[in-house]
Amino acid sequence: MEYNGSNKQNTEEELWVPDWYNHTDVGGVLHRRLQTVREKCTKYTGYRNQWKDKPRIKNANSGSIQYCYTAKAGSTFWNNLLQAVKKTSKTPAANRTVKLMTVRNPWHRLVSTYIHKFSTKWRSHAQNMCHKRFFKRPSFRKFVKDCVLSRWMIHEYNTHWLPAAERCGICTGELDFIVAVENMKDEAMYILKNSSVSSYEKIYNGIRQSTIRLNEKKKKSTNYQDYYKDLDEKDIEMLTELYSFDIYLFSYPKSPFIFQVKP
């Protein structure tokens, strides 16, 4: 049975309003988000690490900024950005290194993983991510069922769809910033500026142009909701459970059919 829940029909009440929406005080947004996540961490008791192997933490470091990787949430951009900062910026020695991670709407992130990994060279990605062979390029529905959910049911994961909340010691209090991919330019610029990175705008714009995806270069927008229309109701429910900690901590929508409020 395909998913035909009422949340396919968006109403004004179902729109997602991000924490940065209509706010020009970027520092205030970042501070409130971090505080909100810390408060939610102390209140949430339903989480337990469910994976056979504890997710590894991978970092990139410029000296003044340390980034904890979240795949398909700007990780390539941040890795290249911090390498460029380290090589080209005349940044004074920092008294301390600020630590950050990035988060992204999990419904969009999952589609992005599928588009990126299953468009070209999909056979090798399918083998590595799903541990099985496909005779033809799998649909998004098959990717969700046979890769994401089937691996999750046996407590195994792939870093590209692993919930962001599973990484970076999100509830340990070690992070200084949690950057939302949906508002990344403003938030990245703020962090670079406040980390005394010289020529930060030039560095940012150069790395952004070098890491932009082909569909973005062609100015093609992705309708993420269309990918979920062929999924079963049970699949949507299981994905909601898989990403429940991301949805709770970072206030992302509880359904893929909830649109972001427009400016």
Defining key terms:
263 residues, disordered N terminus, globular, 44% helix, 4 strands
Radius of gyration, CA atoms, in whole angstroms: 19 Å
Spatial ordering of strands, largest sheet: 1-2-3-4
Element-by-element helix/strand order: HEEHEHHHEHHHHHH
Secondary structure class reads alpha/beta
Rounded mean pLDDT is 85
Shape: globular
Tally of alpha and pi helices: 11
Helix content: 40-55%
Instruction: Specify the biggest β-sheet.
Output: 4 strands, mixed
Q: How much of the polypeptide forms β-strand, as a percent range?
A: 5-15%
The low-pLDDT segments are: 1-12
What distance separates the N and C termini?
35 Å
What's the total count of β strands?
A: 4
Describe this structure in words.
This protein is an alpha/beta fold. It is built from 11 helices and 4 strands; from the N terminus they run H-E-E-H-E-H-H-H-E-H-H-H-H-H-H. It has helices at 26-43, 75-88, 106-117, 122-130, 140-153, 184-194, 200-211, 214-217, 224-228, 233-242, 244-250, and strands at residues 59-61, 65-68, 98-103, 177-180. It has a 4-stranded mixed β-sheet. A hairpin with a 3-residue loop joins strand 1 (59-61) and strand 2 (65-68). The longest helix has 18 residues, at 26-43. The two termini are 35 Å apart. Residues 1-12 have low confidence and may be disordered.
